[in-house]
Design a protein that fits this description.
256 residues, alpha/beta, Metallo-beta-lactamase, Chain A, 7-stranded mixed sheet, 5-stranded mixed sheet
């Protein structure tokens, strides 16, 4: 998760187990805008294979339905699923098993994906085949719920999709602005508050220098604008935070 940064350094931030694994979660965020319920990514879900469970060391069951229920919603209340990219830990929850048949979990939702990301995911190579599962993804296409976009796109007033690249060529982020306050979700460009440091880039990133450049510009904005916050997809402790500079050191303050 920290790429070329030595474990002697990142190990001070997050403890690892005997297999060199660190504990992370898949945080899912719900955005309400213009009368729409927009789900940002869908996590691992409950259709991953035993091999995938071993790869991710996944434990427990999906909390998608229970999480939505806690805020008074059900799967059919989701209008838009915004998928930052199609890696298993971000997109597998988009489908579920219905009596042995794979079907969309959110039957009334448009699923927004960058066209570049879709093309790469449907045609994985030797490096990406473990994280792109075309058979699952094509369920969305078959049911007519796939909405491909090209580059930066305004989804609705105040809601923008930003094509970042970096983690994957078609990775995208979302920026939401309301009443002068902006919250950004850059997913695996900044997967946790520990990854705010520009060179802390996961080894799975296909274009790490691009990730660093996107992060460099983003961190500058987050520090300069006190009306901006950032949501983290894999952080255990800080789900949404605000950046501050304390004597030249960047810190992340948790927002409840």
């Amino acid at each position: 998760m920290f790429g070329v940064v030595p474990k002697k350094i990142w190990g001070k931030l997050l403890p690892s187990d005997g297999n060199n694994l660190i504990t992370m979660v898949t945080n899912l965020f719900l955005l309400k805008a213009s009368g729409k319920n927009i789900l940002l990514d869908t996590g691992l879900g409950d259709v991953i294979s035993p091999v995938e469970k071993k790869i991710y060391d996944a434990s427990g069951t999906t909390n998608i339905e229970t999480g939505l229920k806690q805020i008074g919603l059900a799967s059919n209340d989701i209008d838009i699923v915004f998928l930052t990219h199609l890696h298993t830990d971000h997109a597998a929850g988009s489908v579920k098993n219905d009596n042995g048949i794979m079907v969309p979990r959110f039957r009334k939702a448009r699923h927004i994906v960058q066209r570049t990301e879709w093309d790469d995911a449907i045609n994985p190579n030797e490096r990406t085949a473990a994280v792109y599962i075309p058979d699952r993804l094509r369920v969305l296409e078959k049911e007519g719920q796939l909405d491909l976009i090209d580059g930066d796109t305004e989804l609705m007033p105040g809601i923008k999709a930003i094509k970042t690249g970096g983690h994957t060529p078609g990775h995208q982020a979302i920026e939401a602005t309301s009443d002068g306050f902006t919250t950004v979700y850059y997913a695996d460009i900044v997967p946790s508050s520990y990854h705010i440091r520009v060179p802390y880039v996961a080894a799975v990133d296909l274009n790490p220098l691009e990730t660093m450049e996107v992060k460099r510009r983003l961190v500058k904005r987050l520090l300069e604008d006190r009306h901006m916050s950032i949501a983290f997809d894999h952080d255990i402790n800080i789900k949404i935070g605000r950046l501050a500079d304390e004597n030249g050191k960047i810190i992340v303050d948790r927002i409840e």
